[in-house]
Amino acid sequence: MNYKDCIKWLYSFEKFGIRLGLGRIEYICKNLGNPQDCYKIIHVGGTNGKGSVCKYLESILVNSGYAVGTYISPHLQRFSERFVVNKKEISENEIIKLIEKVKPIIDKMIDNNDIPTYFEIVTALAFLHFKKKNVDFAIIEVGLGGRYDATNIVNPIISIITNVTFDHQNILGKEIKDISFEKAGIIKENIPIVTAATGEALNVIKKVAQEKDTKIKIIRNNSWRLISKKSDFQEYVINSILRKYNITTSMIGKYQGENIAITIATVEILQMSGIYITDESIDKAFLDTNNPGRMEIVGLNPIILLDGAHNIAGMKYLMYSLKEDFSFDKLILIIGILSDKNIKEILELITPIADLIIATKSQTSRAFDPKLLKEMMKKKEVIVKDKINEAIIHAKKIAKKSDLICITGSLYTVGEARSYLL
């Protein structure tokens, strides 16, 4: 198989959809020799901020001299973004070799009418890749939920639940307590947990942690304070367990203070468990870290901002940042949302502050029809463009230098926009 054939084979499993459960991934990994047991794992779940926390942790551990694998999902532009070792994406040849190793196991499962999902296969590939690269640490981002997510066969040294808000309610449950219980499923016996969850979600997580005899570190709002900000950086004071930190990050957005506080608390727990991490590697890491497609400025005059806000909480943060962190005459909003999201609520948050809206869609089959999006925004001037590149061309044509073009609604939308723009 060549690389194109390998990717085509992988994507052929997307039609089987999302089927939560651990039996299939356990079978695959057992036949691979359980590669996920060959290195120290940091397991990162939650609703928003997972990607940023993973990237921050990666930078800190790499700066401290460790070999670090990072597994994230979904990817924005390239499949290889999902598997990173020491900030370097997997090569096409490495992907081919991994699939050649895994495919016979999958073929046998198909023969037995036990077909795995796309995400289960990709997760197994990540575990195997990190073993082959002999990493010291693997930072593993939860795909969906936690309790029955394919990543939850790992035995981590620490777990993180960033926060819990409404998302994937058709799968995880309609109420916050149900969603929280699913996300709390990554909590393991006697393995410390760090979380910034609040309210009812925090109560659920604390209850599960108590049942698991697990120490919990809660990140409160007073754990961090924004002291200065510009369009390309922010400065925070973080009050953590061991000391106070003055942190500068090139990643913008109100929520980064929380993400940084979560990261530092996690690192301090690792330090206290005997893992060598220098203060210098912590201080330096945040300025070095970027997370493409999340509050990312990719153009000036006019400003072009990419943000993969795909749920209610993410859109609230985006709305706040647009109002508080940017100066512009008119806001031109390019938006494409997935069909399984809280579309009405998302639109109610972001559309009131937009002067002109361009409804569009990504190429994924999950994309919501932009014509229906327009019908849901009757009180606004809305233009429909079926392709994201057409939406961008139109926005740039009508925008003045003093305006801001914001592209958002899903990571698929942002990924396609980023590929076109960059």
Instruction: Specify the biggest β-sheet.
Output: 8 strands, mixed
Number of strands: 17
Number of domains: 2
Mean pLDDT: 93
Our estimate of the beta-strand percent is 15-25%
Strand order of the largest sheet: 4-3-2-5-1-6-7-8
User: What would the principal axes of the Cα set say about the shape?
Assistant: globular
N-to-C CA distance: 30 Å
User: Runs with pLDDT <50, length 5+?
Assistant: none
By secondary-structure content and strand pairing, the structural class works out as alpha/beta
Query: Would you state the CATH class of the largest domain?
Result: Alpha Beta
Radius of gyration in whole Å, from Cα?
Answer: 21 Å
**CATH third-tier fold name of the largest domain:** UDP-N-acetylmuramoyl-L-alanine:D-glutamate ligase
| Fraction of residues in helix | 40-55%
The CATH superfamily of the largest domain is identified as: Mur-like, catalytic domain
CATH-level-2 architecture of the largest domain: 3-Layer(aba) Sandwich
Oligomeric form of this entry? Answer: single chain
How many helices? 15
